[in-house]
Amino acid sequence: MSRWTFDDIPDLTGRRAVVTGANSGIGLVEARELARHGADVVMAVRNMESGEKGADRIRATGVPGSVTVEELDLASQDSVRRFADRVEGPLDLLLNNAGVMMPPRYRETEDGFELQFGTNHLGHFALTGRLLPQLLAAEAPRVTTVSSIAHHNGDGAVCEGNPREGYDPQTSYGRSKLANLLFATELQRRAAAAGSHLTSTAAHPGISSTNLIASKDGLGAIPVVGTVMQLVSKVVFPGAEKGAEAEVYAATVAEPGSYTGPTGFQETRGAVGEARRSSLAQDETLARLLWERSEELTGVTISVEGR
């Protein structure tokens, strides 16, 4: 099989997509490539000014699909609700891409959740649930949730939501990414059991040199560390173009329930293919418990019913 590239994306004319965190980095590439193949893309971003600049960059390439920008702060359940209320009509694709990585000190969302768990998992869990009516109104809806090779650092305490006591940036990030993978897998499991036409997939980008490393919500909270890490990553790791490949593949053509990532050195880079899951990521009981806990914390009940 030849290496999959963006040129292998099928025609998406008439399809409507939402990409979270699409103002820069991998999310911006994802939005561009979906629009390049005809999709009408909603860039769901926290920073509207940055989002509009990103949208202008995409439009300047002459893509056939439309590109619009909407405000969404995944660290706010109220913002998630307001965004979902603004999305009208069928939605073909939801790409849960945005994330926060390893803030050095414990931080909380406005709802009182640890920042990584609240943003990376609970924000996307609630967003998916609130957009389900629009998704199920589409002919062949797909939800792709972005995990990470760091999910292997997650542990069985994932349902505890990263409590303040004993906070560790790396473990807490790993738990949030384990939660992403458990959610994506459980969503597909429930969709299949309900006879729904919804497809859920997961993906990870390997290690890419993007603004996520220097973000003030993550490692960039310590300026020197964020700057040094970003400089090093630019030399050692591929950029957003390569990092986005696995996620776009998962969002457009991957099999239901699949987990896609780079297949090169320790899954940090290389051609797109099947990614490895930790034993915990395959634990159906843990996935169910996390689902139930997430419904309790967000107040969003997800029932996957469809044609």
TrEMBL record:
GO terms for molecular function: oxidoreductase activity. Coiled coil: none annotated. It comes from the Bacteria. The keyword Iron-sulfur does not apply. Keywords: Oxidoreductase. CDD domains: retinol-DH_like_SDR_c_like. InterPro entries: NAD(P)-bd_dom_sf (IPR036291), SDR_fam (IPR002347). Belongs to the short-chain dehydrogenases/reductases (SDR) family. This is SDR family NAD(P)-dependent oxidoreductase. It comes from Phycicoccus avicenniae.
